[in-house]
Input
Amino acid sequence: MSGAIASISRPRFLCLLRRYLEDDREHLGAMLETANALRETNGWPWYVLVQSYATNGGVARWNTFLEQANGAERIRWECLFADDPDDIDAAEDRLCALSEEFAARRWLSRTRPALLTSLRRVHALGGPDAMALVWNTLPEAQALLCWLKTFPMIGDKYARNMCMDVAHPLIRDHVALDHRLNRIC
Output
């Protein structure tokens, strides 16, 4: 836990959190709507997994990739496997080239191998829809978080973030303590 969060009492933290949530209710509502909409799209588990690797080390390149380069479309599972759904090597080559555009350069040597390993794992599962079935059939939050942490470089914070990004019902009462909450302390 960061020093700023760890040094305040639980009642004080809850008071600050309530004030923040009240002040930001409209924005948080919009975020929840976006998360629910994302969870309704085909391939959402793949998207949030790629996003986790892409934003390791910062979000600027990822946001630019999404906004200026039609990135969300280009990383879709169907686009990576456009020529042949079984040609994992061609999909890996496409994703490797795309990662040059979206991943933080200083972490690329770490995130790219993890991303490519995850591509192969999701492919072995049967693709993002099969991954969604696993994701949605795990019985409790802890089981879901433990399963997500079996992907390379996905720890507690990223596993929670991935679930928060899609407002997953098992994780709605969890909070990933990171930069999104530091400003309230």
